[in-house]
Amino acid sequence: MGRFKRFVGVVIVMLLLTGCAGGGGVPKPKETLMKPYSNQYYGIMYPTEFIYDVGGDGYGGEIFVSLLRDEPSFSVRVLRMKPLGRFLTAEDFEALVDIVIGGIQDNIHATIVSNSRFNLKGDQPAHKVVYTEYVYGEETEKKMQIATCHKDVILVMYFSSKINKFDSRLPIFNEIIDSFEFLF
Questions:
Q1: How many domains does the chain have?
Q2: Domain that holds residue 177
Q3: Which tens digit of pLDDT belongs to each residue from 130-154?
């Protein structure tokens, strides 16, 4: 029995030395399922299970598209419009918001659920519109658009999901929104 106790004692000491028995009280870093994407204008964190692509919008802007491979209706799109060549004013931003809301209101298949102003990280002014949209032959989608601008860059983030999954996806959308920052 003495050899067995000694053997168990040696094993326990080895486990403690290699960190297998709790890491010596050092807390583990918070694990996250988010990974970073950034360009010269902005940075965001998005889910690791997403695939993404970045391309031009045909008008001098850039579109970052991130989606689930097995559920393409659950997507995040970030549109950076072509810089205007001058800094944007509060009036320019209000005009942008009016254009975004007007475009949704002009869509006969869309219904606005909520419409509000808020601030992104660093007190960056933004506007959020949540709406539903019927897509012919498919399940209705619920969407959210976040519009903001900084210096001479206009940026719109689109979040989309099937209406019955939107509320469960909202924490992911909010985590992405909370991670967003202009890098210049």
A1: 1
A2: 27-182
A3: 999 998 877 889 999 888 888 877 7
